[in-house]
Amino acid sequence: MTLLSIEGVSRKFGNVTALSDVSIDIQQGEFFALLGPSGCGKTTLLRILAGFETPDQGGVRLDGTDLLKLAPHKRPVNLMFQSYALFPHMTVAKNVAYGLERENLPRAEIKARVGEVLEKVGLEPMANRRPAQLSGGQQQRVALARAIVKRPRLLLLDEPLSALDKKVRAEMQLELKRLQHEVGITFVVVTHDQEEAMSLADRIAVMDQGRVEQVDAPVTLYDRPRTYFVADFIGANNLFTGAIRGGVFSAEGLGPLPSKATTADGSAALAIRPERVRLTEPTPGMVQGVVVDVSFYGGVSHIAVEVTGLGRKVLAATQGSARITPGTVVGVTWRPEDAVLIPN
Ligand SMILES: Nc1ncnc2c1ncn2[C@@H]1O[C@H](COP(=O)(O)OP(=O)(O)OP(=O)(O)O)[C@@H](O)[C@H]1O
């Protein structure tokens, strides 16, 4: 069931186009991510949903009602900020109760709801502490508790984990996912960190320069990128530009490459993941190159091959430590079905 419909939203600031005809449907109960490089417009879109920004064109519906007509505080939407914005002089419990107290709910109900939420985020034993007496990860949980205690239909999270160090961040990712499942609230998270988006979200909208490039599940974005930008942005990839003629893809400077062309003739790109690249004995007609670097990253090895005629390296990845040394001349190939063709 669609909860949120973003329909043809555009926004300009002077001559900068922050959003250009953005349309996205977000499902009830979904963990959704807006992912893209700095300046792609994701924060602007989040601010439009929260009500701090208005689009020049387009509409936004939540549960079928026009969200843009509602003032920010009237929207069944909560925004969790990057900086947690906790009140330093209030206890954890007070911080969480604050939003409910402002709604003048009965004391008993506030107490029950705060207790329930603190238990969910594992902070009950710390209910009487002040934010300064908590770790970064615990402060994060308070912020989250404060956002979900009001039971919004939609929770917006702006780079929620960027202030945490790597280890705490990994823990909080799992925690966020678990909590989202448990409370069943639809989450929309903004991030420029693709690993974070991939590990958290059910679906991701990849954005670039104010446009939505692709909306899909993480695995689909990885395996079947539909645009050059997505193929390049999500994970490591080897990309070749060229053209499809008569069902065969030929790369500029290299000639035909293994692929199964199902798309029409015309200019296109070919993407092949490093883990799909096979390095073999070179045979005539095969793409060839010289191994220039072998790096072991605990579990996987990355092998860089300077490809003849390309003036550029191709990256291969293998499990374990690679039994190949720099200077070796190799053939570079892959199974045709592993190559992704992206028409221009
Ligand atoms: N209030 C504003 N006035 C002028 N330009 C703005 C304003 N807000 C955003 N922009 C511009 O609009 C574009 C999109 O900005 P936005 O903050 O939405 O991007 P972002 O993807 O969230 O980037 P970041 O990850 O750096 O926050 C940028 O070029 C930005 O400079």
Shape: elongated
Hetero groups in this structure are: adenosine-5'-triphosphate
Mind summarizing the main beta sheet? 6 strands, mixed
Order of helices and strands: EEEHEEEHHHEHEHEEHHEEEEEEEEEE
What fraction of residues sit in β-strands? 35-45%
Largest sheet: spatial strand order = 6-7-8-3-9-10
Strand segment count: 20
What is the typical, i.e. mean, pLDDT?
Answer: 92
- Global structural class: alpha+beta
Helical coverage, percent range = 10-25%
**What is the tally of helical segments?**
8
For the record, give the distance between the C-alpha atoms at the N and C termini, rounded to a whole number: 33 Å
The CATH architecture of the largest domain is 3-Layer(aba) Sandwich
Rg on CA atoms, Å: 24 Å
* Fold-level CATH name of the largest domain: Rossmann fold
Low-confidence stretches: none
CATH C-level class of the largest domain is Alpha Beta
Tell me the number of structural domains: 2
CATH homology-level superfamily of the largest domain: P-loop containing nucleotide triphosphate hydrolases
How would you portray this structure in words?
The chain is an alpha+beta fold. It has 2 domains: about 220 residues, P-loop containing nucleotide triphosphate hydrolases (Rossmann fold, 3-Layer(aba) Sandwich), CATH 3.40.50; about 110 residues, OB fold (Dihydrolipoamide Acetyltransferase, E2P). The strands form 4 sheets. The chain has a 6-stranded mixed sheet, sandwiched between helices. α2 crosses α3. The site of adenosine-5'-triphosphate (ATP) has 12 residues, from β2 and α1.
